[in-house]
Amino acid sequence: MPTYQLKYFNIKGLVEPARWLFALAGQPYKDHRFQEGEWPSVKPTTPCGQAPILVVDGKQIAQSKAVFRYLAKQFGLVGETDMDQARGDMIVDYFEDFTGPLRVIRKEGDPPKKKELMAKFMATLPIYLGNLEKLLKENNDGDGFFVGEKVTWTDVVFVCNTEIHKRFLNPGYLADYPKLEALVQRVEALPAIAEWIKTRPVTEV
Prior knowledge:
eye lens protein, 205 residues, EC 2.5.1.18, transferase, structural constituent of eye lens, GST_C
């Protein structure tokens, strides 16, 4: 059985979906969180000079989506058919179109520029959420998961990120999208996920 180590900062950030995948699989791993001042010495040893990094039997995998896809395949948390897997990838990639600009806004230090970027983002938000709701409803009328009959990494990536979005946007930002809101509740209620949320280290982000 392979050994796993996940390396990232002491935040949820980009890597939290991987922690959820480990929880769902019941797979032991080392959740290594960089201590203050540690990252500069680790950075040159990583494949891309970025975190997170997944170490599997001593071999490193960088880039968060690559990490998620690898773990999902290892743990059987992908769609059961080629079409479901492709649609799952499509939804995650589309979701990245939504979350990418939001990360830029969060890091913007100039208040007027940040306000301008946020206004543009909020204007497009209904389009993204509407399309995600539509995609969810295309599978079992939206009463299950994004693809197939069981939870996959696609659901995990979406639901896990809503934690941050609720804090950065507003807690009710999914109110007009009942299928998405119900999906969040459904995934967070899964016993392994609920236990992880209850017992994980407390961080601001």
